[in-house]
Batch of 2 targets.
Target 1
Amino acid sequence: MQNYFSNLFIINIDDASAIRLLILLNIILLSMVLLYFIFRIAVPRIKKYGSELKEKRSMEAETGKSSEIRTPDTEAAIALALYMYFNEMHDEESDIITVKRVSKTYSPWSSKLYSMRNLR
């Protein structure tokens, strides 16, 4: 039984296989570092660029490239709505506020307060 375990853990590695193993481990390490930088740096920049591009396209679509056909009727309706909005009549108020002072108003709360002052 002892002979079986002793033969199991003995590893015969020659120089060529050790060099291949070290090269393979370095390739794995470098690929993991490269993937880290891709996911940490490149992906957020790509997402930011994509959102800026999408926003730019939507702004172009809203401003100059409208598919509506303007007719004199629609322009007159818009002009009338703006005229009515800016020239709308408001009630004029005097802007005077008066406040009447009352010396003491009766309420159950105030009477309770007055009775609490006498601590006998």
Target 2
Amino acid sequence: MMEMLNLATLIFVTLFAAAAAVALDWMLLRVMFVLMRPATARQPRLAPVRLASGTVRLARAYASQR
């Protein structure tokens, strides 16, 4: 009888620990998504690409030769 009580206690504690681990993992995953949201929500604004006037002149000069 005592062995069955010990086995039932072991099974109950194991299931409780597994449920607590899953709950903690789920909570930490949600916290990580909340912490990552500002980094992905803000898109960096890149400066517009402007070619130097000399580069534009060279490109036009070589384009007209083709």
